[in-house]
Design a protein that fits this description.
Layout lengths: L2 E2 L2 E2 H22 L8 H27 L11 H29 L4 H32 L3 H18 L11 H9 L12 E5 L5 E5 L1 H25 L5 H25 L6 H21 L5 H22 L10
Antiparallel strand pairs: 1-2, 3-4
Length: 329
């Protein structure tokens, strides 16, 4: 059978078909009227995505155990898939705060935000695919790059532990300034339209971008920056392209639904970043441990990762239990 990147083409086509169906379901049915997504609806939809991801991950695990899904580097496809999925999901929670700031800066109402995020995932799939593809090719050609990834993860984790978080000012973002200088941008929204035709100062009809388009561009660039942490983290677990790509994309798909609940409660996860920092240090250090001592049991890696993330979430909720939650829609 024809193969692409080490796996039969039907596997890739099947996964991308699943993603396309989920996006069509989101846009064509759940968000057809462009209504604002409430916290309760967000949690229900998130439960659906997480449940679907668990079923998909179980399928990857079963396929590996049955001998239908061997990995290129000999790692256990199921264990590394779940480990990568949970790391990506947890790392993406920080992304929620940035997305919320971007929507606030461009004054995007809630009823337009979800559709913009679903459109954004299309760009994310392409960008993540390119990053993962280039990363896999480089690691395959120069395996010493894994040690660079490991050192980067350890240093990033240490930085997260010792460096205080700074305030994010979207108005000072160089990309926002560049886009405003180089494009005609309307001062107000035009529904869910990214571009509109309007007269310029000379009365000529020109194509104008709307603030919704600018918000979408900035969000996707922010997601790409966050991927600089998450992609090396999963490459430290496995270099199998199918496992890396599917775990990344499944985690991101669900996060878009969870955004509306997390945006209202993100302050309750104040201590999660320290748990994530320890996860990055652990995953990065494991690369050097595997080389010097011997491979760590993948089940232990999954258990430690889950324990750290769960502990960070529970500790955050416990420490912030007296704080008032942000007003839910």
């Amino acid at each position: 059978m024809l193969e692409w990147l080490g796996k039969p083409i039907w596997m890739w086509a099947g996964f991308l078909s699943i993603v396309a169906l989920l996006l069509a379901f989101d846009l064509g049915i759940l968000n057809r009227k462009g209504k604002e997504l409430g916290v309760k609806e967000s949690l229900v939809l998130s439960a659906f995505y997480i449940g679907f991801s668990m079923i998909f991950g179980a399928g990857v695990w079963w396929a590996h155990e049955a001998g239908h899904l061997p990995t290129e580097d000999g790692t256990h496809a199921g264990i590394t898939w779940f480990t990568g999925f949970f790391i990506e999901k947890a790392l993406s929670i920080d992304n929620v705060f940035v997305i919320s700031l971007i929507f606030g800066f461009f004054a995007i109402p809630g009823r337009y935000q979800y559709r913009a995020l679903v459109y954004g995932i299309l760009a994310v799939i392409v960008l993540r695919g390119l990053m993962i593809g280039v990363g896999a090719a480089l690691v395959r050609e120069y395996d010493w790059l894994l040690y660079i990834f490991g050192a980067f993860l350890v240093l990033t984790g240490i930085k997260m532990l010792v460096m205080p978080e700074g305030e994010t000012d979207v108005s000072k973002n160089p990309l926002v300034k560049f886009l405003r200088r180089r494009m005609r941008v309307t001062d107000e929204l035009h529904g869910e339209k990214m571009f509109v035709r309007l007269p310029d100062g000379a009365g000529k009809i020109r194509l104008w971008a709307t603030p919704l388009f600018l918000a979408l561009v900035v969000i996707n660039v922010a997601d790409l920056i966050f991927a600089v942490d998450s992609v090396p983290a999963i490459f430290a677990l496995t270099t199998d392209m199918f496992v890396v790509f599917t775990a990344n994309i499944m985690a991101i798909l669900g996060l878009r639904a969870l955004y509306f609940a997390l945006a209202a409660l993100v302050h309750r996860f104040a201590y999660l970043k320290y748990a994530l920092a320890m996860v990055l240090v652990f995953i990065g250090a494991k690369i050097f441990w595997n080389s010097a001592v011997g491979k760590v049991n993948p089940a232990i890696s999954l258990g430690v990762t889950l324990a750290m993330i769960t502990g960070g979430i529970l500790y955050s909720l416990w420490k912030t239990r007296g704080e008032e939650a942000h007003a839910a829609r």
